[in-house]
User: Fold these one by one.
Assistant:
Number 1:
Amino acid sequence: MSLSEYLDESERNWKKNEILKARNLLKYLEQHIPVDLRKVAHSENELEILGKLHVWLFNFYQKEFLEGLKYINYDVLKYKKHLIYSFILSVLRNKSNIDILYDVLVSKEIIEKMLVYEDSTYEIITKDFRTISFKKASNIVDEETKKYLESLGNQIIDGCHEITFYLIQKDSNLKAVTSICTKWLDCKYYHSFALDYNNNVIDLTANLIMPQDMYYLLQDVEELNVVNYLDYLKEENNSIEYEESKTLFPLLRCALYKQF
């Protein structure tokens, strides 16, 4: 099996698991909530329905929604982490739903409040996960990096491996972490980001700088490979012979080789 085939198989299995959980959760909710969720979401796709409505469900049908999560063996604390991280992404990307998410998080006592300091550091006081601090990477990165990101356009969100590789080539003090992260409904995905010498995560796909321990907690990070650019050059040749397609990003290829 080549690395590309291994990647495809892993992602197919993760997607199947996500779809199964979405289907079972939606089935449970349809039996316990007097609302036609498919009609409200204008969709028949289980993942799309829950993607659109999960915050609304948590807000207005909290008891039934949390019981549904337990029914599919999805940890409620994981859902709370997902909501917090979704809110952080909304702040970082200046999304229009910031106020709605904030009101839900406060009213459901997941967070107490968010503070913003003069140095542009954000701080979220949470009930279950201590205090979470973060910054917008766009306020810190240099002009050359900003121009590079602008050149990617809408590809930034899906460009984690490419962007992280750019960072470690540019700065020898940075390390690239290629990992498996987990999002809504236990959907796993391969993700790369940088670590600086102060153990801060630099995730430019999210416009985020955050202490490593909090990022790992919110994203359920499972490290596969950690390299600086010199380390990568030493590992590069070992992984190339197992990658027949020649299409994998370098950091992902090296991480898959170690996992494989």
Number 2:
Amino acid sequence: MRGMREFCLIAVAAVCSTICFAGGLTDLRKNFPEEKFIAAVGEGMTKDAARKSALAELAAYFSQTVAGGVTAKSVMQNGNGVFSAQERIERIVETSSSASLFSVRYTGFSYDRRGKSYSVCAYISRDEAWLVLSRRLDLLQGAFTASVAAAERERDPLRRLFLLGSAVDDMADFEGLYFMALAVFPGRGGEYGRTLERKAVLEKEVRSAKSGMKIRVLASGDFAADTRARLEGILSGAGFSVVRGAAQYDFSAVTNVMRQNHGEILYAQAEVTLTLGGATLCAMTDRLSAYNEQTLERLCRAEAVRILESLAQEHLR
């Protein structure tokens, strides 16, 4: 399963308007009524500094609004015992403020001779922003619905669990986009909110199912003890109940290192294979080289662990 990813909405378009910003709040609200635009003023000793300041103020607007939205949502969901989402506030706010904003337009510059500084207004059309967000949300929502349907058709409980977990993980971008959409139009997005609530319910189901599923790890080949301990740690960290005795499922990890000697350089090929119920789940191979046996041994051991972690992160989370 995939980890969480940052998203980028659309590249900034620096478009200058024929409107000249006079610098006052009245002028701002007159030219950019709040129900139609999100606008912010920036000041600086140069035009470039003023424009960057205005853009930063726009990013701050989204960060603050998104943070408030996530906090309110978390309180509501915690009240129902669904999940705790406090850690998501920082992630979504960081993503929102670092992501490129939509099609940002700028007014003409105003120059204050006394303060020797420039002022400019950066603004976004709410309708245009909603169009960008809703299209992306529709795509993610459709993919989520299809993934959940595929998971529910799976008969094997563990494989079904993996598919559901993957569908939930793939919605990491959806959550941030949804709260940004609420920042644009607070009264819209009811359908997206219901999808987000369904995701929260599935998260709870996945966690509950994992904790009740007993898994045993079997390891063989080179560095078997290291492989077993690391895989057990990964599965435990993912919420599974790892046991040494009778289990519902066995995960087998086989690590093979094949060495070759070509003159002064030693080569080795490290291969890790994960199997579930006798069927190969995934495999990965990497080739290493070193000038002495001790270095090669250390590299092989580290690489075997790296491969194992890479495979496990992709397929077992």
Number 3:
Amino acid sequence: MVVEYFMGRKECNTIKELEETLKLRNQNSANEFIISEKEKYYPYLAITVRDDLAVLNYMEEEGCSYIAIGGEKAGVQEGSTLFHTCSETDEMEMDNYYVLRFCDAQIVAKEFFEDMTLPKSVEWDRI
């Protein structure tokens, strides 16, 4: 499994290595992780993180993607949250309906690590 993020790229062969990598943050307490197989681009799981909040996107193949539903179901207040995406300076404001707690994102990442399919531990919208 390969994890790409703002500060580099790391090969993770165990869940423990994945957990340690997902803890990495920049000076804004943010990061974006793209998790995929070593030799393949698809499927991948993208986790955009700020503080203890996260947005999850699953891309099965070109043109087939999903976003995890969070919001009140995940204990996140109504409104929106500003995240950094693609780089440390690019920003996106995300409706909290799609924002989860980071601890839930970790569960999803571990599930994806195990079987590389759409994780079932959260609800998804196809986009």
